[in-house]
């Protein structure tokens, strides 16, 4: 049935937070790269019309046809939209700005919230261990498609004053999707991003988030690191741009924690 979990696709993790600029795309790119470096087969599906994950993985405009937009509109399969990156074992389904229109165009389509899930279940998709979905900064139909397609959500939270305010809305949305369209949906974890240890506010917010989410919060904290922010303009994950910087090391640690939790799930 169309509602069965997509078979043989590996684990599908949506990277979501309706706030922009919290580190979703950076986490998608670098966590995916760290897992590929650990010899996992990884796919990133770029579901943000801004296409930052595609750009950050070195995919140029000419390589984005078909794109995730065509997949959602039923005009291409996921397999057809896959582009290999320079990172061995890491592929991406790129995004183009047309995706902005999908929020409206999909309203008219049947199974509008299940289109990505159906695409993941289609035959011909290569085997992946992990599929990350980089969500746009909203809780519209695109993010809903990811939550319906995903096994679990990974929530990046920037250590700033209103971090927890927006996230309660995301948690309610996850609960709602679990009750209606995707009973297996879980929160894989919450990752604190752009952490500045010298900043009291960063420390206070981190403490509040750990209080609220308990062990859902990864021990690994991603520090604010200029190398992390420079890497995308070179079309490279920070692990390739400067693998020794603090940001790269943090993402490698995070990948280790994610794998550990995933093994817990599989057991
Ligand atoms: P989102 O996808 O949630 O909108 P991004 O991952 O694009 O957020 O991050 C927003 C901005 O912050 C980008 O310019 C990115 O390069 C920068 N950034 C993200 N993580 C870090 C970090 N750990 N250190 C420094 N800059 C970062
Ligand atoms: Mg983004």
Automatic annotation (TrEMBL):
Highest taxon listed in the record's lineage: Bacteria
Domain AAA: start-end pairs: 11-187
Pfam families the record matches: AAA_31
Signal peptide: none
Task of the protein: Involved in chromosome partition. Localize to both poles of the predivisional cell following completion of DNA replication.
Name the UniProt record assigns to this protein: Chromosome partitioning protein ParA
Organism: Tistrella mobilis (strain KA081020-065)
């Amino acid at each position: 049935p169309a509602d069965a979990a997509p078979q043989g696709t590996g684990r599908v993790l949506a990277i979501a937070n309706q706030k922009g600029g919290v580190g979703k795309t950076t986490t998608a790119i670098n966590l995916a790269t760290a897992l590929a470096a650990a010899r996992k087969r990884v796919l990133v599906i770029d579901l943000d019309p801004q296409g930052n994950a595609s750009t950050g993985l070195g995919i140029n405009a000419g390589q984005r046809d078909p794109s995730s937009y065509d997949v959602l509109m039923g005009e291409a399969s996921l397999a057809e939209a896959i582009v290999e990156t320079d990172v061995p074992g890491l592929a991406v389904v790129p995004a183009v700005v047309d995706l902005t229109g999908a929020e409206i165009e999909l309203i008219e389509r049947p199974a509008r919230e299940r289109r990505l899930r159906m695409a993941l279940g289609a035959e011909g998709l290569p085997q992946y261990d992990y599929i990350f979905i980089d969500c746009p900064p909203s809780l519209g139909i695109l993010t809903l498609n990811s939550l319906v397609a995903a096994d679990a959500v990974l929530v990046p939270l920037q250590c700033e004053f209103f971090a927890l305010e927006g996230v309660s809305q995301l948690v309610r949305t996850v609960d709602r999707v679990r009750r209606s369209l995707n009973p297996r949906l879980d929160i894989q974890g919450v990752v604190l991003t752009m952490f500045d240890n010298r900043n009291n506010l960063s420390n206070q917010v981190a403490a509040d988030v750990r209080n609220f989410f308990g062990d859902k919060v990864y021990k690994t904290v991603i520090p604010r690191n200029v190398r992390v922010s420079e890497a995308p303009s070179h079309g490279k994950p920070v692990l390739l741009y400067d693998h020794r910087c603090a940001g790269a090391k943090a993402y490698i640690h995070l990948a280790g924690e994610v794998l550990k939790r995933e093994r817990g799930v599989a057991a």
